[in-house]
Every structure is written in C-alpha cells, then in structure tokens.
Amino acid sequence: MTSPDQSKAAASAHEVLAADFRGAMRRLASGVALVTTADADGTRYGIAMTAVMSLSMEPPSLLLAINRTASLCRPLLDRGLFGVSILAREQEQSCNAFVSAPAAERFSHGDWIAHDESGIPLLGSALAGIVCRLDKAEPFGSHVVIRGLVDYVSLDPSSNALVYLDGRYGGMTAND
C-alpha cells in the first residue's frame, strides 16, 4: 500500500518530469501550420500546430497530434478531411489569430480559399497547402494521433518558413 507521502512524492516527480519535458520540446524548432476542416454546412474550423510531420512518401501521408479538447478535433474526425497550410514567415499574424482569436474569428486574417473538390479551407499564400483524407485516428493520452493520406498539394516557390522555438516565432529560409 502506498502512503500519502509516497503518493505526493510520485505526483510531484511526475509534475517535474512533465515540466522538464515541456521545456525540452520548446527547444525543438518546428515549422508552423494551420490545420483546418469544414463541416457539411461549410462551417470552418482550424488550429495552429507544430505537431505535423510527414509520415511516408509512398503513399504520401502525414501525422498530426491534436489535443482532444481542441475545437478542430471533433469536426475533423467527423468530416474525415483536413487541410494543412504550411506558413511563411510573414504569416505570423494569421498564426496568432488561430492561437488567440475566438474560433469564429480565426479565418478573418489571410487569403483563405476553399479547395475545389473538398471545400477544405487553405491559406492561399501559404508555402504549401495540403488536403488529406483521414486514414486512421488513434487516441493517445491527451491527444488523438491522426494519419492522413494526401490527396492534393499546392506549392509556393518561396521557402521563407515561419519557425517556432521556445515560445517565439522566427523565420528561416533554405539558405540560412
């Protein structure tokens, strides 16, 4: 049987580990993307994310990790389609809107377009726009890990990416 002091010590150790891990991940520079979907009525949902990565080139696919409480999570799972707009350095304002604005106001910044076939919102001036079909969703801890199969890609010729590091934004080009 565990004593109250042992339980308190274990909880404290877990909190320290969680805080240290959060600090370690803040030191991992990441590209920034806006992940979006739209429901059958055309209502748009989206969040800013750094937890986006390529999974495979064959088949072209991505992985996302979305907090279960995020406003995007349920609509994305229900619709089974989502967009990823990879942000350029000059799109920090659009990113901030997705971080701090109420959900209904997030799409008021930027040049949003709807993908012709799916209606999924993409930022027209993003470095890249990707539309994916949900292939698999698996709960893990506080998040849902999403595997998406790529159906569409648009590319901008520039490469001045928005980068997130230690709670701040910066930029990086392929020449840096």
Question: How would you summarize this macromolecular structure in one to three sentences?
Answer:
With 176 residues, the chain is α+β, with helices and mostly antiparallel strands. It contains three helices and twelve strands; from the N terminus they run αβββββαβαββββββ.
Could you explain how this protein is built, in words?
With 176 residues, the chain is α+β, with helices and mostly antiparallel strands. The chain has two domains: 1-28; 32-172, Pnp Oxidase, Chain A (Roll), CATH 2.30.110. The chain is built from three helices and twelve strands, in the order αβββββαβαββββββ. The protein has helices at 4-26, 73-79, 92-100, and strands at 30-31, 33-38, 44-49, 52-57, 60-67, 81-86, 112-114, 121-123, 128-140, 143-155, 161-165, 168-172. A seven-stranded antiparallel sheet has the order 3-2-6-9-10-5-4. A three-stranded antiparallel sheet has the order 1-11-12, with no helix packed on it. Strand 4 and strand 5 (60-67) form a beta hairpin. The longest helix has 23 residues, at 4-26. The chain is globular, with a radius of gyration of 18 Å. The N and C termini lie far apart (57 Å). 28% of the residues are buried. The model has no long low-confidence stretch (mean pLDDT 91).
